[in-house]
Structure formats: structure tokens, C-alpha cells
Amino acid sequence: MNNSRLILFLITLIISQSIISQEMDQKEENEKILAPSKAAFFSTILPGLGQAYNKNTGKYLSYMELLEQVFISITKITRVIKDIEAHIKED
Hints:
rod-shaped; 2 domains; mainly alpha; single chain
């Protein structure tokens, strides 16, 4: 009777250890550690790329929208300046 309980306990222990190790492996795969230095490097190339590397799509899209608005504003301002310069040269 004691031997059967011991065998049952050992089987239960082995199965539980197997399940726990599988769960830990899945968590490690899902939560791969991303290097902060790579994210910083990507952010120096283009603001927002570090957020994309870290899979933070909300912030990435916000940065891209902000950059788009900045570039649109710059092009509009340069057009206005060129129009003013052309108008001054005509006079």
C-alpha cells in the first residue's frame, strides 16, 4: 500500500514538474528580453523606431503621425517663404 502511494506521488511530481517547465518555456518565448541599446539606436535613426522594436505600436503610430505633421508643416512653410521671396523679387 505504501509503495503504491509512493509511486503515485512520484508520478504526480514528475508530471507537475513537466507542466511547470513547459509553462516557463512558453513565458520565456512570449517575453523575449529586448535590448534597450537596440531600441535607443533605432530611436536615434528615426524617432519611434525604438517603440516599434519594443512592439509598442500605439506610441510608434503616435510618433509617426507627429513626424508626418512636422514634415507637412515644414513643406508648407517653405512654400510660403518661396512665394514671399518670389513676390519680393517681382517688386
